[in-house]
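Hey, quick one: can you model this chain's 3D structure?
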Amino acid sequence: MRRLALTAAALVVATPGCAAFGDDADGTQVAAAFYPLAFVADRVAGDLAEVDNLTTPGAEPHDLELTIKETAVIAQADLVIHEQGLQPAVDEAVEQNAAGDVLDAAAVVGLQPFADDHDDHGGEDDGHDEPHHEDDGHDHDGGLDPHFWQDPLRMADLADAVADRLADLDPEHADDFAANAASLRADLEDLDAAYTDGLADCERHTIVVSHDAFGYLTRYGLEVAPVSGLSPDAEPSPATLGELQRLIEDDGITTVFSERLASPRLTRSLAADAGVTTAVLDSIEGLTDETADQDYLSLMRANLAALREANACR
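Sure thing. Here's the predicted structure for all 314 residues.
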């Protein structure tokens, strides 16, 4: 079905004088694979380009399957922004259909490796290797963590790269794109400072989260213990659950964090067994009906407030 969609989309776009589904848009067209990439593209482009988010609100980006229409958007875009390895369906569609410029966020921001285990969450790698995307529980075999948007400074680096690509496509507005990227960088640096200050003095520094999407928070002194691996739907082993229960007891952890885009079944069960509460830590992989009026910046600040409360930060 995926290859059928790719072929059908290519035929639609290849038809002379016929845009996909009759929607022949003017101006620069940008296709962003999922919400954090779309947020950056929107802020940098302003009203000078049209940005389409390929992952619909409420959908889990890891499991995205593209429709014919979404594949046609990729084929017609002047710029496609994706993260190689995170969404296989998007990677395949980009390889087979993208006719414009392609920006791989993973190659721009420098992904850090997954922690080897729950007791080792530090260290960063500024290399540009491809991110690991196999769902193998907690053992990522030294792969790279794709959830870079939890680090505001990496988001700022992506914004600069998007501004450069848009300037190549629309040189007349290069100064506008650069100014928009600089404005976003200022907002993101303020956010980074809020995290640095807000998490500097806490009673606890370990958080138990739904899946392995928060490793970049280690730069603020946190240690992250995920219930599941890269996929939020992965089933943890009994040994992992037992380890997490001991960690909660030993470290005096009061909260197990669930997510809006993932089922809370496992986190609620773990919290109930351990006798602690649950709260929401948004992975910001996408918006939902509940967060439709928010954006990346406000959700990150809401996450900070939740972290400060859970870890008794002063």
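One thing worth noting: Residues 174-198 form the longest helix (25 residues).
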